[in-house]
Amino acid sequence: MAKYTVPANGAKIGYKDGKIQVPDNPIVPYFPGDGTGPDIWKATKIVLDGAVELAYKGKKKIAWMEVYAGLSALKAYDKDTVLPQETLDAFKEYRVGLKGPLTTPAGSFKFVCLDCAAELMDRPANCPKCKSEWITPRFRSVNVGLRQKLDLYACVRPVRWFTGVPCPVKSPEKFNIVIFRENTEDIYAGIEFEWGTAEQKQVYEFITKTMKKNIPFPDSGIGIKPISKTGSQRLARMAIKYAIDHKKPSVTLVHKGNIQKFTEGAFRDWGYEVAVTEFREHVVTEAELWDKLDGKMPAGKVLIKDRIADQTFQQFLLRPDEYSVIATTNLNGDYLSDAAVAQVGGLGIGPGANIGDGCAIFEATHGTAPKYTNKDMVNPGSLILSGVMMLEHMGWQEAADLIVKGLEKTIAAKTVTYDFERQMPGATKIKCSEFGAAIVKNMGGAAVAA
Ligand code: NAP
């Protein structure tokens, strides 16, 4: 029997003709996550439920279903299980989910404490740092596992500025960009050979002797970067479709094709191919714009252009308003999306989603911020705005709009969590839970206890 309980008052989200079919009482699997996850989850649930109630007066309601991952999975299953198959199956079956951040071990130690993220070489009964008993063997990222096993091939991050949010640039209002980052290939393929192993030697010899390619030093770790036509085109397709549906002016294919022609360069070529073969009526390429249209963009069409990755970082700082939707490979997208979020005020307010065909998980894009665990202190904005993306994905736009309104009003009133307060002169510092309650109040909802 499954460890999770299916809510009796909910119904499954369906899928027909490439679109999700959302009932009025959809079952939505979620997990709060590790570290500060439970704090931001509590604030987020109050805001999402408050907005849905206010928008639909009881006609619609989310039936939340808790599933387990990370620390909660160790507690519910056993001390070696961080990503239970049941959790994967639930997200697949119920199609739309929301998740908090999870601890991801990074170094060459053997065990990790999921309460405080301490990295350990052995497995004591209790963590030497925080005394927790929840220590588990080192594992690959659960986030990456979820994305790969559910084939959530696009990591989507809308990045925009909210009036009043402290940020390092002069004109943050010019930034309104949605980044579609490929989620399954490139460095996420995770193919690496460690120097000193028999496998590395074999690969090194194959590359240098059989393929006659130069690797400067034999003592090299070797990584393989696969980028396929299938993976690139489905990502580009999703980004272009999004731009057309949301009446966005352009899609930019970001790549490093000047150096890596058969992976990064091919990504660009395959992106253009999808654009002109599948969306011909809706798009104009940058070459067509200048060769055939004298630089005059026809109304209602989406411009398809491409830029080299390093130049895109400059462009984001100098002329962000020339960019609207970005489609890019995994590593480029990783750097670009974090840099973009920093430009408009930081990770506390950057939402994200991992989307595949018929399944999507919305998530806080920052980590577990372990030093603030159980302090009811961090900014829940990232998870709340991920919830906004989720409501939009479900077609519940009215509720999504209410939350954005409530958030804008709360920030404008300078009642913010510590991360914003330390940069906003005259601001009042409030707790994570109080920030959630303030958003509900400012959207016009019923008062909730913080
Ligand atoms: P992090 O958890 O994102 O925290 C780094 C810093 O960012 C925090 O110390 C804090 O800065 C700020 N921050 C993060 N979340 C915030 C929030 N909600 N509100 C305000 N400020 C926030 O990164 P990390 O410390 O490198 O990683 C901790 C663990 O999380 C690691 O195990 C990592 O692998 C994992 N991780 C998980 C995910 C995910 O699940 N999607 C993503 C990234 C990292 P200040 O201290 O300066 O205020």
Describe this structure in words.
By secondary structure, this protein is of the alpha/beta class. The protein is built from 14 helices and 20 strands. An 11-stranded mixed sheet has the order 4-3-5-18-17-9-10-16-13-15-14, with helices on both faces. Strands 7-6-8 form a 3-stranded antiparallel sheet, with no helix packed on it. Strands 1-2 form a two-stranded antiparallel ribbon. α1 packs across α11 (381-393), α1 (37-56) crosses α12 (397-412) and α9 (309-318) packs parallel to α10. It is globular. The structure holds NADP nicotinamide-adenine-dinucleotide phosphate.
Topology:
Layout: E1 14-16, E2 19-21, E3 27-31, H1 37-56, E4 63-66, H2 71-76, H3 85-94, E5 96-99, E6 111-113, E7 119-120, E8 135-137, H4 142-149, E9 154-160, E10 176-182, E11 191-193, H5 198-210, E12 222-224, H6 229-245, E13 250-255, H7 261-278, E14 283-285, H8 286-291, E15 302-308, H9 309-318, E16 325-328, H10 330-343, E17 351-355, E18 360-364, H11 381-393, H12 397-412, E19 415-416, H13 418-421, E20 428-429, H14 432-442
Parallel strand pairs: 3-4, 3-5, 5-18, 10-16, 13-15, 13-16, 14-15, 19-20
Antiparallel strand pairs: 1-2, 6-7, 6-8, 9-10, 9-17, 11-12, 17-18
Helix pairs in contact: 1-11, 1-12, 1-14, 6-7, 9-10, 11-12, 12-14
This protein binds NADP nicotinamide-adenine-dinucleotide phosphate.
NADP nicotinamide-adenine-dinucleotide phosphate is lined by residues 40, 101-104, 106, 117, 143, 347-348, 363, 366-370, 378-379, 382, 419.
